Amino acid sequence: MSDRFRIAARSHGPSVAAAARSLEDDVWGHLGFLNATDAHHRHYDRILETFADLQLCLIDDETDELVALANCAPLKWNGAALPSTGWDWLVEEGARDRDVPHNTLGALAISVPPRHRGTGHAQRMIGELKRLCERHGFTSLIAPVRPSRKFQHQSVCMRDYVGWTDESGRCYDPWLRSHLQQGARVQGVCERSMVVVQPVAFWETWAGRRFDRSGTFCVEGGLVPVLIDLERDVGIYEEPNVWVRYDCGGHSALN
Length: 255
Ligand SMILES: CC(C)(COP(=O)(O)OP(=O)(O)OC[C@H]1O[C@@H](n2cnc3c(N)ncnc32)[C@H](O)[C@@H]1OP(=O)(O)O)[C@@H](O)C(=O)NCCC(=O)NCCS
Known about the structure:
- By secondary structure, the chain is α+β, with helices and mostly antiparallel strands.
- The chain has two domains: about 5-195 and about 240-245, Gcn5-related N-acetyltransferase (GNAT) (Aminopeptidase); about 195-240, no CATH class.
- The chain has helices at about 15-30, 40-50, 85-95, 120-135, 160-165, 175-180, 200-205; strands at about 5-10, 55-60, 65-75, 105-110, 140-145, 185-200, 215, 225-230, 235-245.
- Strands 1, 2, 3, 4, 5, 6, 7, 8 and 9 form a nine-stranded mixed beta sheet that branches.
- Helix 2 crosses helix 3 (about 85-95).
- The termini are far apart.
- The structure holds coenzyme A (COA).
- Coenzyme A binds near residues 121, 146, 148 and 175.
- The site of coenzyme A has 20 residues, from strand 4, helix 4 and helix 6.
């Protein structure tokens, strides 16, 4: 890739922060139900502000357009098995006291608008996160990855999906494949990575339909179906993600 693209942190200035917010709306707007996890609701925006210097924006110098974004949170991690609560756990950890010594970077999202996908920006952002880890002396980069084609196979168990390969024997999912190409090691599925518990009306809005019986229903963009319980007036969405880990060779040895 030519050097017409440069990295700027969200802390660079109000125009970069505003462009980052607008890119997030563009990429994640149709998945807005994910903003309703408890951890997201309570901590996400504050993490982006507190650690604005760690939020990376890729800018096209020719057009001045923001073409990719990598959001993350630093944390202290002792290398123990990563929990099934995945993304929500990462946000809770990132929201802890900012003065604790961090040794790990947790990737919360890499976002590329549809018109800029398939160009290498996403893989570049993985590389930029690894470099960020090295600059800070962190030992690991961890990420609860949201496989990009799983939404087309909502009824398939994530553990099975992760093992799917294409005709060339490569990992079937393009986004997981990109992580593997960048050197990620899969640590396992986090079954309850993003948990959204909301009244049935909330889900009816996102599904664009009424639910007249209890059961499991697909919502566009979801990775698994939502469990609707009319009697309790609740819909529960438990999104599984895939933990991956990169070793970054930093020197922070924390226990
Ligand atoms: C996930 C996401 C960031 C991936 O972006 P992407 O650009 O589609 O990147 P992918 O890594 O999936 O695809 C890479 C493909 O781009 C192509 N590509 C990579 N580098 C390229 C380059 N320099 N030139 C042209 N094509 C290139 C490759 O063909 C690759 O496909 P391959 O594996 O078949 O070779 C993007 O789909 C997105 O923003 N999705 C919504 C938000 C989201 O879910 N984020 C992830 C949360 S963990």
